[in-house]
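User: Fold this; C-alpha cells only.

Assistant: Input:
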Amino acid sequence: MTVPTYEPLNTLKSVAENIWIADGPIIKMDIKIGMIPFSTRMTVIKLNDGSIWVHSPIEATPNLLAEIDQLGPVKHLVSPNMIHYACIPQWQTYYPKATAWASPGVNKRAASQNIDVSFDQDLTDQAPFEWADDIEQLIFKGSSVIEEVVFFHKSSRTLILADLIENFEPKRTQSFWWRMIYKLAGIAHPDGKTPLDLRLTFTGNQEIARKSYHQILAWQPEKIILAHGRWYKENGVAELKRAFRWLEE
C-alpha cells in the first residue's frame, strides 16, 4: 500500500462519549507538482441538544449515513479550512436542512475549482450558540495562505485538527519514496507536525501564530484528532508541545 489507511473505513469509531471518528479512503490532492495521496478522517459529535455536528465530511457511503442517522439529526456540516470541503455538497444532498459552515477562504477556493457548494454561515473565532456549550473554537492565524478553524470538544477534552498536524506512519507503507517525503516534510510519526510547506507560510507572522497556539494549549487537550495519519488517543498536551515546537524555537 502506497499510503496507509485506517481500516475499517466508512464506519463510526468511538473516541469518547458523544464523539466519534470515521476513517475514509485515500484522496489525491493537486499541489501543482503532482497529485499527492492522503488518508482521510472526519469527526462526528452529538451535541447536547441531540443534533449531530460533522467535521470535514468524508465520502457519504450508505453504511456511514445509516450509522449517523442512528445518532440523531445532522444539523451542522463543518469545513475547517479551505481544502477540507469537497464532500460537503454530497452530504447536503442527504441532509438539505443542515447548516453548512464555511472556513476562511473556502468559498473562493471552491469557485476556483468549479465545485458547486453552498455555505450558509461563516465560522469565526467564537463558537456559535448552536454548539457553544459543547465545543470551543478559534481561527489559527498567521499563515499567508490558509487559516484553519480548530475545535475543542469540552466534555472529552478532544482537540480536533485538519492540517495543522499531520502524522503519517512510515512503517505502514512499502514505498521508500513516501517514507522519505514524510520525513522531509516533517509529518512522519512519531514526530508528526505542521507540514513544512504550511509552516513556511507563517514566515514573518510567527508571533501571531504563537498566540493562537497558546490559546489551544490553554485548553489542555487529552486527545487530538487529526484528519491525516495516526491520531493521538492520549498525552495531548505533550504531543501539542512537541508538534508546535517550531513556533517556540
